[in-house]
Amino acid sequence: MPQNGSAFDRATAVTRTEGGGIRAELDPAWDVGAGVLNGGYLLGVVARAALLDSPHPHPVALSASYLRATPGGPADLTVTAGPGGRTLAHASVLLSPAGGPSLAVQVTTATLGRDGSDYSVNPVPEVPGPDECVATRTAEGGPAVGLARQIDTRLDPATAGWTVGRPSDTRLLRAWIRLADGRDPDPLALLLFADALPPTAFAVGRPGWAPTVQLQVLVRALPAPGWCLVESRSTEVTGGWSDEECRIWDSAGRLVAQARQLARVAR
Amino acid sequence: MPQNGSAFDRATAVTRTEGGGIRAELDPAWDVGAGVLNGGYLLGVVARAALLDSPHPHPVALSASYLRATPGGPADLTVTAGPGGRTLAHASVLLSPAGGPSLAVQVTTATLGRDGSDYSVNPVPEVPGPDECVATRTAEGGPAVGLARQIDTRLDPATAGWTVGRPSDTRLLRAWIRLADGRDPDPLALLLFADALPPTAFAVGRPGWAPTVQLQVLVRALPAPGWCLVESRSTEVTGGWSDEECRIWDSAGRLVAQARQLARVAR
Fold first, then answer.
1. ipTM value
2. How many domains in chain A?
3. Per the domain annotation, does A98 fall within a domain?
4. Which residues of A touch B107 (CB under 8 A)?
């Protein structure tokens, strides 16, 4: 599929205004419930804005503060370029929908390659193939939100007990993931995938909101075509705060992204 | 020791100017070589600026882009407050020494507690006591930089082979750490400790610069008095980029901070 024909590319498009600003039409179809847009989808929009004037083609690191919930509709993007050189460039991006700034992001852009790793202790977990996994779109207890129609998510049966009323005692989710329209992954899609699984509290039978406070995503390599495998785990929950650690491997078994977020959780 | 008597508190102090700005006198004694200040020290300064007008007393999440090297001397801090509520508050902080902006940080403040964890898969590693560990201040191959005089670092012998010419094949460092003047840890000191160990490439016998590109630090709990244990590991090195994963436990064995940075490394 040509990338400009993909729903993700259309929904994350940014345009320059006559006044020299940058504008996006945030698509309400990428929500996580109650009209609130998914945080990874928003990072895709922000990265596109940062890339407009960058000398480099790929986002390699995004660190975001989620100031408030972002609704669909028109939004302004303010890009403040930092220093840029041969290796990388920095920018700060502020996303402002109608109600005022909702997302502030530090963006680093560079040129990613397909070279093999020089060092890796991120072996790909053993998970059955996508067809032997649990499609969350139709799972009991699965998310009935816009995002679930945009991405095809297949949960590792070992971490899917919660979908059939048998929660685990471990806050761990693993899933194959791809865009529902078949568009292959790229660094922008990895930003989406880094915040696309349900909160890990679902795995232990505690569904509910877990709004992201800050999220850092590192894109480590260009992903191969096909499914990506996403692993999300919480390692520490205390005082109403949870971390969510995320690793993403491509179809060739290579680590292509890492992320960590701090989220609020029900106490 | 009263905290206002500590070198760290003096070196990270910020003051309001008559014009309403915020200013710091960055202390060249906290350098990592060549007059370049340590990234964790700078986060301490930035957090103090963010706390000035915050309704909350503690930094809980900082995400920073290191735009360029920061030298000692006077620096301006620009704090842009975001939304704040009963639970947390956001701010963006820009640190500008004489040469222009060098550090852009998203800061989230809140109120941290000493409650026990609700969930944790971060058992404290088994490391001999500080007196049985390797003091890097005097170690052959150890860092002969200002920072090494400000903090007392005791490397786990299991990860200290590189200090005596016997590097490991694992990019892992563990060390007890405290401020050299005996000041007890607090959330600000944890920001320092999150970027205080040498690059993990040292462990495999490849000393050299590893400039931080982006760094996220999460402070998860108020630390108990005494030594902290810091573990730093690299999990993926590719194309001249390395991650550095950091966890910090307090003297009671509790996880009190997590961090991840993306750094440039020699190829």
1. 0.96
2. 1
3. yes
4. 65
